[in-house]
Amino acid sequence: MSSSKLIIVLKSSQDWDEWFFIVQSRAKKARLYDYIDPTKDLRPQQPIAPTKPPLPTGNITDADREEHKWKREDYKEDKKEYDRQMRELNDLSSLIEDSLRALQVRLQPSTSTQQEFVLNKLRELEKPPTTQSTEKWLTQWEECVFKARSLGLSDVEGSRGVNAFLKPIMQHDSEYASPILRELRLGTKTLDVSDVIVDYREHARQKQALITNKTHATFAATLRGEEQPQKPPKCLCGLLHWYFQCFYLNPNAPNRPADFKPNKKIKTQVENALKRGTPLIPHTQGNKGKGKEPKPDTLANDDNSDDEQGSIKSFPAVVAQSFATHRDSRPTTLELSWIVDTGTTHHVCNRYMRKRFIKTRNAGLDDFVIYGNTRVPIKSFGNVTVNARNGKKSKVITLRDVAYVPAFMGNLVSISKCNKKDVHMDTKSLRLYKDDTIVYVLTPSEGQFFLELHQAESVPAITSAATTRSLPAEQWHGVFAHTNYHAIKALLTAVTGVEFTNDVVPVHYDTCSRAKAYQLVARDLLPEEARNESFFRVSFNLIQMTPAFNQHEWITYIECIKSNYVFTRTHMLKSDYNTLILDILSMIERRFDALTAFFRTDGERSLNTAFKAELKRRGITIEVLAPYTPAQNGHAERTSQSIIIKARVMRIGVNLPERLWPETVLAATYIHNRTPSKVLKWKTPFELAHGIKPNVAHMRVYGCKAYALNKTIPRSNKLQERALVGYLVGYDSTNIYRIWYLPGDRIIRLRDVSFDESSKYSPDEQEQYQEIEDVEEEP
């Protein structure tokens, strides 16, 4: 007679309690737990096989025979105990092996899948590295070579692998790649790709060290092109010095006294300037260009001379007026506009000009924009159009050989380069002229001269977590998934952290009408045995959905019939819910100190025998309803339908993609458990389950824009954006949010988050993010 074994697949931390409970139970039953107890460092001695007593020799007496008989009896008992211990140890090992085997079947990809993954990765690595990611790129190559060889792929062997590695390097470091490729063509040398990777890493480090050790002269061009020492600008504090030297702007400024006491008047002046816009250039007034743009005029800066191209290979583009601080991703006036600058030796543009940018050539490893002690690599060079003003008319000009630096804080027109084309600047009349003819008119603002000025949009109020929030009733309606008017009105007594700034009145919303059209007939059964305790009786429901972004396709609901508290889990395979239900029941026992006695189901046929046996072992009675009559399981059907409606309203209201439904459903469950209900006498399921009122001050309008501090940026990257921009899709706790981060299409868990509840996702934004990433790597 065979007995079925309950195998718990240890696929995540949620499975640990159940898996370890089974292992611990078997080990204690076999008196072997001391051998595997993870809390103890010392282990008892392993079982030792007993030695069979030898037969007596010589003159054997009756006493010898009797003694030998007792020794054989002892041996048999010891052997029996030893065999039992070894059998139990083997069974325990078999349990672990079965779990690992189940994991292997479930998760280990096939050889062909692994080969396809490695080949795709090799194709991705055919793109040349940037200066900042060269080390990472080489490490990825080494990992791919190792995996390819372990899988028997010939794509990295011999000259084929070396050619594949040197092909992207040839684009920006032909000096290194050309001799090796020539040797391969001639067959004079046999190389291994691993050796070439190691050699190139050392080559790149030595080259970078030589570039870093060079001394770059900082200079500014006069109106006539004569070089002279550059003068520091007027700082926001009113003094003439560089911004990194300012005691008010930079707490780590050189020579700043440890006991420095700021002047209150100057400090207020600097803070007001920072609040008005960017740290150095506050918001300025100006009109955005409207109407159809005229055809480009390339006369003013038609620069294609050979001497210019030749000098760029080693030029240091010097920018003296850029300063980065922590800010969100909204573009500032400086980032959207063009200023003429006498302190830069080259034209520079940022990512907000990417649609105007036409790439003409790649940047080299030694092409940088340098300001102060910081250097930022140039991505590429190309031509950019600028909408300049000539009197009341707009005129489009083309700047040639512009350095593209995506994260730069502004767009600069180099007067030094203009002078070479006989275009000069008159600082008194604010004109650019050529041959005594006015070509362009500049717009002055806050000490800068703008050739093209665009005013940045005003930044709406950004909110962060608080103990209590005062909001209009309409906004709380959005936070609580467009729940009904009576539930919103009951929030003041049912939860904490809520205040209304206006009266709660019924309001019609189009989103509610589009999402809440449904019909559900529910006939709750009167339980034969009822007790006034939470989780004494729970109901179960299973819903199938379309495949999501994480390949999940099923939703498992477990609901307490007494408190309406719901546990929701999404999963990939239908059979997964057997394990998930046991996890939830264990959580109820540990977290809520409650025992479940009845488990109501509509007779789901995939409830396996092992699962039913485990429920019976726990003393839980399964209440099976009549098949094909979901109305009998009205409680679970009604609640799961209510959560689906909430999720639908939340998704439609903020235009989120439907493939994010796992996050939306989990968030809808979170909101459901914190929403007062008439059935519960305007209390929340959370209060009935936990015994305290929930605080909801941390909750925000679902799907609103989120700005999170990016803590992974190296300290040397002063110009890189400090904020990750995403959208709120759920809560892990009262101070940890789940954010949908569009680059990479992934969900990240963050604590330091600010929200703009007036902004929501636009379907066009995915394209914009992807375009930005592509352009930053290769405009």
TrEMBL record:
Catalytic activity: DNA(n) + a 2'-deoxyribonucleoside 5'-triphosphate = DNA(n+1) + diphosphate
Protein name as catalogued: Integrase catalytic core
GO molecular function: ATP binding; DNA binding; DNA-directed DNA polymerase activity; endonuclease activity; metal ion binding; peptidase activity; RNA binding; RNA-directed DNA polymerase activity
Comp. bias (Basic and acidic residues): 62-71
Keywords: ATP-binding, DNA integration, DNA recombination, DNA-binding, DNA-directed DNA polymerase, Endonuclease, Hydrolase, Magnesium, Metal-binding, Nuclease, Nucleotide-binding, Nucleotidyltransferase, Protease, RNA-binding, RNA-directed DNA polymerase, Transferase, Transposition, Viral release from host cell, Virion maturation
Role noted for this protein: The aspartyl protease (PR) mediates the proteolytic cleavages of the Gag and Gag-Pol polyproteins after assembly of the VLP.
Pfam short name (any one): Pol_BBD
Biological processes per GO annotation: DNA integration; DNA recombination; proteolysis; transposition
Organism: Botryosphaeria dothidea
GO CC annotations, alphabetized: nucleus
InterPro entries per UniProt: Integrase_cat-core, PolX-like_BBD, Retrotran_Ty1/copia-like, RNaseH-like_sf, RNaseH_sf, SH3_retrovirus
